[in-house]
Specification:
Nucleotidyltransferase, domain 5; Hexokinase, domain 1; five-stranded mixed sheet; 326 residues; 14 strands; 13 helices; single chain
Length: 326
Amino acid sequence: MKVLAGDIGGTHARLAIVELGDRARILAERTAPSQEVRSVAELVESFLAGQPERPSRACFGIAGPVVNGMVSGTNLPWTLDARELARSLRIPALRLINDFEAAAHAVSRLEQKDLLTLQQGERDPRGAIALIGAGTGLGEGFLVRAGSGFSVQASEGGHASFAPEDARGWELFQYLAARHGHVSWERVLSGPGLVAVFEFLAAGREWSGEQALRAELAREDKGAVISRHALAQSDPVAVAALDLFVDAYGAQAGNLALTVLATGGVYLAGGIARQIAPKLGDGSFMNAFLRKGRMAGLLARMPVQVILNPDVGLLGAAAAAALADS
């Protein structure tokens, strides 16, 4: 079966024709900057015009809450309606789902080479599975056992209130509250969040190399610059920013794991996790993940892995497309 899959985040909109079988195979794909896409229908039509046939099934994972087949992306400039899109594209079986719901559909298709293990744990094959991932925003989702398989559940837990754990966290909270009012976990755990953490730590401070770093920040993607210098240990404020970011990441991943009782495993997805995988593997993420008092022993038994496969959103959307009703 060949299906049309989409992974539409706040930064990039990716489309692909995926062949589903024993293994999913991407046959053709296109990527466009999300903020430059005037119409998803136009983008899809342009992509399909170069394909030999029009698939009868499609699914798009969207960074935002999907309610009754409609979504206004949290970090996207348009609203989509699955029924209208199906008519416009002449694809009878078309679904819109949350992007982390899409990623969850791909979990069963991941191979060991697609994963970096942070904690081996003791996987319960019938236990719930949690997914969390920082990108342009903070995505969350989970799977729960349903009969012989799993039911995929979307979540907007990234917009739950940020909870500082120490004095520095409280100072960060106040800094962000002055900017935004409500401080969600996404305000910290996202590309813009990492930049905000850096600016919080840099406020009123001067250090060697500051001017050169700020020149890079003005030219390039700010989050990528901060991550690069932090991983290279070449800037002290970037290092401190990534330290704080990863500590918060581990804390919220632990919160999600407890909320859904993720004895089936915890997966970190998204571009930032792949980018900072060496930092995630140095122990600081897991220290924060396990810092839950009486629940530390329970969390220590949960497998925790980073998804390294950059196509997980497309592959999950393709798997979900196969389930679409015509």
